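tool_call predict_complex ligand=3-keto-decanoyl-COA
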Amino acid sequence: MSELVQLSKVGDVAVITINNPPVNALSPGVPEGIESAIAAIEKDPSVKAAVLIGGGRTFIAGADINMFVQITSGKGGRIHLLPTLLKIENCSKPVVVAIHGNALGGGLEVAQACHYRVATPDAKVGQPEVNLGIIPGAGGTQRLPRLAGVAKAVEMCTNGKNIKAAEAVEAGIVDRLIEGDLLAGTVAFAREMAGRPTPKTRERNAKLGTPEANAPIFAAARDTVRKKQRGLPAPMAAIDAIEAATKLPFEKGCEEEARLFDKCLYSDESKALIHVFFAEREVAKIPDVPKDTPVIPVNSVAIVGAGTMGGGIAMVCVNAGIPVLLKDTDQAALDRGLANIQKNYATSVKRGRFTQEYMDERMKMIKPTLSYGDFGGADLVIEAVFEGMALKKEVFAELDRVCKRGAILASNTSTLNIDEIAATTSRPEFVIGTHFFSPANVMRLLELVRGNKSSKEVIATCMQLAKKIGKVAVLVGNCRGFVGNRMFLPYIREAQFLVEEGASPEAVDAALTEWGMAMGPLAVGDLGGLDVSWRIRKEFRHLEKPGARQPYVEDKLCEMGRFGQKTGSGWYKYDAERRATPNPEVAELVKKWNAESGIPQRQISAQEIVEREVYCLVNEGARILEEGYALRAGDIDTIYLNGYGFPGFRGGPMWYADTVGLKKVYDRVCEFHKLHGMLWEPAPLLKKLAETGGKFAEFERGAAQATD
Ligand code: ZOZ
Ligand code: NAD
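tool_result ok
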């Protein structure tokens, strides 16, 4: 056997156990171990049937994703899983797979090759390969339609979502649910099956449908992919592979699957998505805050400010089962805040996301208050009052007075200095920034801002809590705008410059959405309110480099009260349904500014728009990385992917720059520097890596400890 796979016996039933923690991935050694176990079972006359089960918290969560990186970087050979699966399927004794936790990707493919499948009621199965830019590579596109039908297989292989065990039973993927002890229940089931036929999934053709019935399924699926998964080759390839299953014999279908799998595996999209998978997990690793750092139990949260952010954060907490005390200054503000929360929940109930009962329960967990009277019981306080240092200091001084020792005091500020806020308390080590993104109940990103005194326990607690409330937390240093907004400011400023040089707002936004961004920068400004960045620009203008180019049009729009969607016009005009049309005032302001400033007007290509927008993110990102405000390039990518609608298949701004090649990016930044002035000064790290052939992904500096 192998160390990763054990064979034992319960009477006349053999038990093959996979033990490859943490998720029983199909690393080298696992397929070999399964093959030897099957060979041993064939030879042992006392064995009548077999059970295949995962040790630990889950069945097999798929291929070992590290392997794919090894293969595409030429450092590792490939594992061929298909022959192993044929050996399971050809076994003369019934093999029953017992699924708990997850059976994903290659894990579900292993299960499909077994003769029978049972699962615990809380198990999940899925073909999530598209999330990594690939397709099932071990017969999944050929066996799944044979078990679940063509429509279900297409759905699962293109959307990549897991389904629950009960749905898997309904679809024909799982034969039976086992309540109680999974191993004992499966052994009993296997014994029932002993001596019975060993149905081979690859020979079950009844659900493969007819060309007439399948044609509309494939057409509709391709249409959906074109609309919803733009830029992704893998979902299309998955459909092609399933179509091959309906037209070719099993072996030929597998050959077609292998060809498509390879094409996807070596694509830039897949490499980017695999980077995204690991980067999202890497962010949890903070060099000086080890895994075993003690955490502070958080059983109750108090929130100061029931506005847009406070309300959203309250929903996030109660959704995770943590009761919330929600404070505002007067009854009207509190009522408004609660009404907004109620409205948000009601929308989710209407859309079928939550039940009315769920909503009622959650609302009961939010206790409104006008005083700090009950704050003494809170384990964590999150301040979300208006953005203003004087007010924040006042609130923190009060929190220091009323909160128990050991409570965490967090600020949701998006621009202010955490250390200055912390200094108003007698316990700066318990102060941290928790920068949620709007809408807080939807956006996955949480920037955790480390103050120069924030304790390791406080950081570890917030990282753990973030996972509990469904957020991806990224630890950042305390600089102006932290990481995300520090990069976003030059990005939206550059979009304004492009308009002032002759590109229309529609052209700027379209170039970026075509490239993959969820929204264009000018439409984003209109959505969030142009007054927000106007206020920030005014507040920090004194810190701008003297002589630096300043945008004009957006300030003028703001002076005219054109704040975007909320006022019916901004970069665009909006009708009652918030549909955007060009705003003629923008063209007039551009014309006026041209006459005054003499900026030459020209046609600007979509390629230049994308390069200027993305490279200014990269240039600022390089500074942040070198200065140590982000721990790794992957952390910056994770922020942009989860908070700013950056397309996953591009991997994030820093990964994308590595993919383009830093020399090429640097050369272009130098050209922009020459043409557009000091705001384009190349970041020293970009220059250095470009000259030495380095990559951001390989750069490591510090511990996100830098503070302003
Ligand atoms: O980790 C969650 C998850 O969803 N994992 C990915 C599942 C997936 O995408 N599976 C499909 C893989 S691709 C595939 O299988 C292709 C295929 O058809 C195979 C054909 C072979 C072809 C051969 C030809 C070359 C999961 C839901 C499982 C667990 O979530 P948790 O929140 O409980 O835990 P995480 O996500 O923090 O994970 C714990 C640690 O495990 C690592 N990990 C998870 N899945 C892995 C994996 N490492 C390698 N391969 C996987 N499939 C994860 O990185 C994390 O590690 P640490 O170091 O951060 O703790
Ligand atoms: P908001 O104006 O919607 O809400 C602020 C609330 O705080 C109001 O209800 C106000 O009555 C209340 N308040 C003011 N002083 C108070 C006090 N002393 N005690 C209790 N309540 C008080 O503001 P918002 O958009 O929710 O922003 C809150 C914080 O979150 C700000 O620091 C902001 O920079 C930050 N933030 C906002 C966004 C966003 O997009 N709105 C995103 C990230 C971070």
